[in-house]
Here is the input.
Amino acid sequence: YWQAGPLLVPAPPIPGLIFNARTQVPLAKDKVRHAGEPLAVVIAESRYIAEDALEDIVVELEALPVIVDIEAALKTGTTPVHDDLGTNVASHARQFKGDYRSAAAKAALVLRRRFHYEHGISSPIETRGVVAQWDARGRQMTIWDTTQAPVFVRNGLAAILGLGERQVRVIAPFVGGGFGPKIMMFYPEEVTLPWIAMRLNRPIKWIEDRFEHFFATTHERGQIHDAEIALDREGRILGVKDVFFHDTGAYNPYGLTVPLNSQCTLLGPYVIPAYDSTFTAVFTNLPIVTPYRGAGRQHGVFVIERLLDLAAHALGIDPIEIRRRNLIPPDAFPYKNEIIYQDFQPLEYDSGNYAPVLDKALAAIGYEAFVRHEQPSMRAQGRCVGIGVACYVEGTGIGPYEGAKVQVQTNGKVSVATGVGTQGQGHFTSFAQIVADELGVDVRDIDIVTGDTDQFYWGAGTFASRGAVVAGNAVSAASQAVRKKALKLAAEAFECSEADLVVADGKVSITGIPEKFIRLGELAQRANPMRGAVTPGTEPGLESTQYFGPAKGATSNGVHAAIIEVDPDTFELKILKYVVVHDCGTVINPLILEGQIHGGVAQGIGNAFFEKLSFDEQGQLQNASLADYLLPTALDVPRMELDHTVTPSPLNPLGVKGAGEAGAIPVGAVFVQAIEDALGLKDKKVELNEVPLSPSRLFELIGGRGT
Ligand code: MCN
Here is the structure.
């Protein structure tokens, strides 16, 4: 199968698109394209023996020129990472709306800048792992895999191993975090372990160590944007042009999601009549790039937020005012952006009301009081304190579909199975709440199974903040269908109309006569009769399987604001206040949502100021340990104030929009603004147009004492 060609990576319908799909093979053949690409497998009785055996393997490699720089990769004469391509262009896409050139010709100000935005690795508490067990007599393969997409893995593996899908069971057990990279199709270990288990007819286990994780699990990483914005004298955006390079690493098994997200998310909550964006994704000799929480969205948000900030300064307009003047008005929804999004559908914002979100964030951070009183008085005391505010819109809840099976058992407990996997998003609680609301049962009586292909056959996976929208609505639809069945059965039993019945407390009772009730468990028993016949056109059991497939994604939005103090000697930061106001439509569980935002902001802070992958010119990662690659600790992540507005999505019955990535997206943009403000850099004509920053990077950029 693998010999037949790379796995099919779909490409979006963008006119003129170049897409050179190159996926890795399980063990490198002929050429190693990045440090960390697997070459050989050692199977042993224990990890100790395996590690010793590894030492005995001598690999002779001929050194080839190494490409680590995305711009250098495109120069003529550079050795291609994939010889057959003759170029390092992995993909190239131009998307536009309106006519940027004439917009710029009319503009009072055209501002151009180069921006660098790097993202890092997701660093889940638990790294990846695969356990494969082959039952030779039953010809059944069972794989426990940390994947975020068990159904895709099952289907692909069946094809590779020459088995039917029903012969492969993939279980995605509880794992400590995924954050995107665990969805990749396929990691070499996901293929080699089952293959070896079949050959040896023994269970095989592999658990990635932290060092391997730095190389062998996918990253996000860098983009370089050459962007310009054209505005009228009042600061209204006439157009934006952006040309950017995206480092995709040695292979691009995940297609175009990350650069497409950057391209689309740059538009933000703003009216941008003319937009012209071109990206070139570039092969390099570095580990593979696939989505990591935010998935390229932070790159786009950084660019537009920086452009607006710099434009506000150039035009002498307040940075909040320039944003407010450009917000899409509430009566403009659904708002069509005319370009293609990562789900290959036209980018359309389903609903939103952006100004109140900004207002709430400003009130919560105390913007006016800070700018007018607190900041001047702190400055008078010699303190360097600044404020940053950034807005964003986030595409979430994309298709194709998810499904759910809801089944009332005869003991009255409800079992629910869905195809998405769970890495810590609290699906067990939020899905149980949805079922409890429909069926009138206690959440503790609901048992949820996610990510086991034998429990639920169909699905796509956990990514793009789609669990609540897509699986959540499938769970809701299946619960409603079960409720209908329960009402019908109870009406037959009581010989009354369904309209006279109420479903609550695990039973169906007659309105106004609470002592006349029948428990859901008993109805489940009646639905599976031992005598008589199940009526034609009906099914046994008090259960239902339903699917939900949104035609397009739901768009969340939000505003982050922070007050940050910078030590002008050491350039260390202290976050004095951090505020997030967010609109993700109907909220299923406020506490889970807060947790999601907290976690996202923590990762965003790491991205903005702590984490940086340092490669040398040979493509060797120099800081592949958590001692050198700095994750923010509890000391670095502040308490956050969260608030919400609710603009339900018209695209799904629950009215929900996704939230899992929202915390991570605008943090870099907020940080640079706050640091620039704290150090008064605008007056010094110093701009911070890159992320991540760090004390040493600030020292390099600003030099000497920051004041
Ligand atoms: N939720 C809610 N109300 C809403 C939206 C969401 O109560 N309006 C709840 C949901 O019910 C769910 C949680 O918030 O319990 C996240 O839902 P959603 O935004 O739909 O995101 P997904 O379920 O699709 O999860 C994926 C998303 C992504 S893309 C990344 S990356 C990420 C994230 O979630 N990885 C995570 N959050 C993570 N959290 C943990 N702990 N670990 C990860 O790996």
Q: What stands out?
A: The longest strand covers residues 237-249. Residues 261 and 297 are 5 Å apart (CA to CA).
